[in-house]
């Protein structure tokens, strides 16, 4: 095989390789092409996801506020309970003192 024949054979092989590469690229592009309908679906899914995230954030904010309100209400109720228990303890002590005073007065007279 002479030099000219080798150059021609190499040119043919390179041209065939180029053609096969171009065809493979075209085929991959054709098979993986994103259609307008798919883009619309992706846009609607993105909007739905965004709306769901906003709803989640609003729910979290609502529940955090509700938790603060309930915690404050519980603290107030506990304070009122302590005050009522202190008042009841004082009233019992005063009742016992009055009972003891009455018994002492009855014992004298």
Summarize the structure.
The protein has 109 residues and is mostly helical. The chain contains two helices and no strands. The protein has helices at 3-31, 36-108.
Structural features, described:
The chain is rod-shaped and about 150 Å long. The mean pLDDT is 94. The protein has 109 residues and is mostly helical. The protein is built from 2 helices and no strands.
Task: Looking at this protein, list some descriptive labels.
94% helix; 2 helices; 109 residues; rod-shaped; mainly alpha
Total count of strands: 0
> Low-confidence segments, ≥5 residues, pLDDT <50?
none
Mean pLDDT: 94
What would you call the structural class? mainly alpha
Largest sheet entry: none
SSE topology string: HH
User: What is the helix content?
Assistant: over 70%
Helix segment tally = 2
